Amino acid sequence: MRVAGQLLIHLEFYDIIVHQIAPASPVIISASIERASRCLHTILHALQRDPSLWQNELGRKVLRMLGSHSLSSEEWQSFISTVPLHCSAALAAAVRNCNEYLAEVERLLRRQADALP
To answer: Cα(8)–Cα(59) distance, rounded to whole angstroms?
Structure first.
């Protein structure tokens, strides 16, 4: 069964071919993304004031990378609705891969934080 808005992906000789069934409604970003965006903005604001992070190049690089994720729900909605169909599958894969390695970084940082006295 095909659902409106579903992406059908075929891999042919490493080229990704994407077919999209016409969506039933525009992209709606959930309230949870809005809350996560506000939370990330608050945390980053505090971290950006910590000299142990912003006084070294790698710390600044990580803060910039995390800051690039702090879009509002309206910005995410606008971005998603304008992504060309031929880029959707590749972008989804990139986001999934980022989530996987960031989840591992989170696990390592939590283990380090839990070891604090």
So the answer is: 40
Q: CB atoms < 10 A from the CB of 29, how many?
A: 19
Q: In whole angstroms, what is the distance from residue 58 CA to residue 49 CA?
A: 15
Q: Determine phi and psi for 95, rounding to 5 degrees.
A: -65, -45
Answer yes or no: are the C-beta atoms of 28 and 78 closer than 8 Å.
no
41-76 pLDDT, tens digit each: 888 989 999 999 989 999 999 999 888 877 877 888
Whole-number Å distance between alpha carbons of 92 and 12 = 18
Residue 30's contacts (CB-CB under 8 Å, 6 or more residues apart) are 73
Q: What is the pLDDT of residues 10-44, one digit of tens each?
A: 444 334 444 444 443 455 667 777 788 788 888 89
- Report which of 109, 98, 112 is spatially closest to residue 43, judged by C-alpha positions: 109
Long-range contacts of 50-56 (CB under 8 A, 24+ apart): none
CB atoms within 10 A of CB 10: 10
Report yes or no on whether pTM surpasses 0.70: no
